[in-house]
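Running log. JK asked me to keep both predictions on one page so they can be read side by side. First protein, sequence followed by its tokens:
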Amino acid sequence: MATIKITQIGSPIRRKADQRATLIGLGLNKMHKTSELEDSPEVRGMIRKVSHMLSVEK
């Protein structure tokens, strides 16, 4: 299955608790940390929710 490489570029400080929880669910909790996940509809939805704090590569 295809994978997506995501990097956190925005800080979760002063963000809603659900956005912080979404970052943790994606495996991100520190600035400039990178995670590689399977390309699924569930992961795409999580990425869309916090897209303003992420950089996405295929």
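And the second, directly underneath as requested:
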Amino acid sequence: MSPIEFWFDFSSGYAFLAAQRIEAVAAELGRSVLWRPYMLGTAFSVTGARGLSSTPLKCDYAQRDWARIARHQGLTFRPPADHPRVALAATRAFYWIEARRPDLAAAFAQRVFALYFTDRLDTASPEAVSRLVPEFGLEPEALLAGIAEPALKEKVRKIGEDAVARGIFGSPFFLVDEEPFWGWDRMEMMAEWVRTGGW
């Protein structure tokens, strides 16, 4: 069976919440998860939308909602004061790791989420992101060189553009058997769709 594609921007509060549950949801459904970070700005350039944290009224509500959900689920949630940060360095690092050690990619993504939303990791800083990789048995210097390579930069850009071309425009965004589900609050519907074969 095809995996659940989990598309997200590392700076998305709702994606952080989804990342806490997606592996368990997929396991219950007998599916794997294909973690797919991308730059949400790529979608915004097509849709004309703005991020929640840049939108009046929605910004205040989202911050309240994230904190409320985190309390309900027993999660620590402390985004940086300058949230959202452009997570390009973390996104490039993910794909660099995936190309070399695909077995580590999901754990790396989870670690980035955890540190950004609880420990104020600067996901925009290559140096800050590189300091995470020794715990995965990788060399910071190798990662820094890798994510600076034009081929890797082009790969990440193309992944985002291809995602938008497939109709992916938000974070989190799920595709399962080519059926799209947008948002953390669609995870239960997605699971029911898979269990029942859709409707």
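Observation for JK regarding the second prediction: The chain is about 55% helix and 10% strand.
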